[in-house]
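Q: What structure does this chain adopt?
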Amino acid sequence: MTDLPEHAAVELPKGSWWDRDVVAWQPGEFRLAAGHDLTYHHGLEPVFTDPLLVACPASFHDPEFRAPAPDGVLAVERRLGGRPAVLVAFEAGAGGPGPVSCLVAAERLDVVHGTVLRHWRADAAAGQRFAPWVRREK
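A:
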């Protein structure tokens, strides 16, 4: 369809990012959280701007990123009417008997690195980020 270069496997910063969940999905943004234990905080957020197609569970574990298969790229191009700027493919555990194949197409991918608290803490450092659902106590 196009002569654009192939989409490569996404590479994230080194770290313990085996647990993932969706922290925001709104018009213009699909944001995942990544960490080794998502109970209290997470340390990495892949942020997809202007998501065009999202096929992944709400939470998953141990994703193995790979380059999208050529037939998958072709199917996405047909469905969207063109090639997306970002196409991320991976296999992940989601609680079932085997891994699930996942795919996210978007206009842009940014990776935000830094601790994001998932519960209110009055002793949080100035400028500390909180997950979108955290209500600040007075």
